[in-house]
Amino acid sequence: MYLEGKPKSGDNTQGADTTASLSAYKARKGSVGLRAVMLLVPIAVLTAIWSPVLGFDLLLGGLCGIGNMWLIMRNNERLLDGRRSRGVYGATNLARILGVGLAPVVSAMTGPWWSMGIALAGFFTPLILYAFALRHEYSTG
Q1: Is this prediction's pTM over 0.85?
Q2: Which residue, 94, 108, 22, is CA-closest to 57?
């Protein structure tokens, strides 16, 4: 019996090429990390000429950002594959947030108060590059 307004149920993955999507995801994950390092290292070196502490803060923030991005992805992959419970997933995310959240605080303690912003700029660089890579991939098909 057909009811007006009732959505059809069924498998919504028909026609999806999951192997191509998964290989693109893995390639993007690695290339974004490499691009972030290639972008941040020269900027950190130039910053270190002016202030070695700030150059280190930028590089440390960037490395924490790359690690954070990869840990988020790995944790999500394990949850989706059914190899991780929701409780462990939450605890792992909490530990990750606390761990990478220390870098900007240490930066503020070892340098000027605004060095936390330098570390956060490095931290968010990989995530911004990932967003741009994903947008480019979606727009080009």
Answers
A1: no
A2: 108
What torsion, rounded to 10 degrees, do the Cα atoms 14, 20, 22, 26 define? -170
Compute the distance between CA of residue 81 and CA of residue 94 in angstroms, rounded to an integer. Answer: 20
**Where along the chain do its domains lie?**
26-140
Torsional sign, CA 30, 35, 41, 44 = negative
Instruction: Work out the angle at residue 39's Cα, subtended by the Cα atoms of residues 62 and 125, and round it to the nearest 5 degrees.
Output: 40
DSSP per-residue string spanning 87-116: HHHHHHHHHHHHHHHHHHHHHHHHS-TTHH
- How would you write the pLDDT of the chain (141 residues) with one tens digit per residue? 445 555 555 555 555 567 878 888 888 888 999 999 999 999 999 999 998 988 999 999 999 999 999 988 898 888 888 888 888 888 988 988 888 888 778 777 877 777 888 888 999 999 999 999 989 888 886
**C-beta of residue 27 within 8 angstroms of C-beta of residue 133:** no
Distance CA 79, CA 86 (A): 7
